[in-house]
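Hi all, posting the design record for the shared folder.

TITLE: backbone redesign
STEP: 1 of 1
STRUCTURE INPUT:
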């Protein structure tokens, strides 16, 4: 490797390191909303679980319909791992994009609603006549370690946009630079959320899939 190539490589590594240092600092802007999203998700997962226990036939019909929709998108445990990974990534990327996009609707805090809906759906899927702890450890935890933070962070970015829009509307003379606000959110989406989604899609397609087949 020539000195010039080595210098370019060091410059790229330094650039990447500075990006992620900045993201760590910037997380303080999203932190409160991230924790609220986490709490709401867990709360609604419990609610969904107990709804599923109370109305098993109705929930089973709903889940069968949802499963058919996912199968149509190429998301099935029977799919080949690499195509499944791509389908999972595309599906989760779309969800995260929607979480952020609805944040541009002021006053209603729509990303929180989407997190609640997602938690409710996950909770409903936990009733399958199998040990709850086994479903969580085998079917959710491996890829959920990276997927859930990506979802919560996307919703937090949406809330971050929503809060600044509200301040801009209420305080018309407020010194709020929406271009910078949007840039902050989108850089976090590109450099943090998307890599997390890639990792979670890989784990779900190449690890979780086989854990489910072997243990559930």
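Okay, here is what came back for every position:
SEQUENCE:
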């Amino acid at each position: 490797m020539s000195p010039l190539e080595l210098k370019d490589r060091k410059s790229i590594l330094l650039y990447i390191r500075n990006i992620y240092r900045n993201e760590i600092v910037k997380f303080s802007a999203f932190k409160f909303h991230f924790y609220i999203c986490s709490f709401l998700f867990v709360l609604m997962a419990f609610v969904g679980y107990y709804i599923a226990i109370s109305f098993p036939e109705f929930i089973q019909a709903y889940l069968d319909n949802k499963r058919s929709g996912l199968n149509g998108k190429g998301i099935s445990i029977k799919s080949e791992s690499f195509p499944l990974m791509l389908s999972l990534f595309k599906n989760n990327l779309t969800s995260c994009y929607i979480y952020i996009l609805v944040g541009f609707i002021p006053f209603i805090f729509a990303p929180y609603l989407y997190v609640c809906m997602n938690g409710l759906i996950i909770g409903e899927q936990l009733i399958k006549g199998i040990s709850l702890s086994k479903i969580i450890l085998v079917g959710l935890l491996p890829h959920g370690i990276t997927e859930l933070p990506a979802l919560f962070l996307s919703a937090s970015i949406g809330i971050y946009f929503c809060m600044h829009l509200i301040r801009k509307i209420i305080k018309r003379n407020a010194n709020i630079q929406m271009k910078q606000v949007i840039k902050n959110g989108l850089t976090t989406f590109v450099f943090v959320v998307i890599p997390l989604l890639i990792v979670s899609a890989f784990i779900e397609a190449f690890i979780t899939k086989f854990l489910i087949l072997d243990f559930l």
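COMMENT: Residues 32-215 form one domain.
Let me know if anyone wants the other runs.
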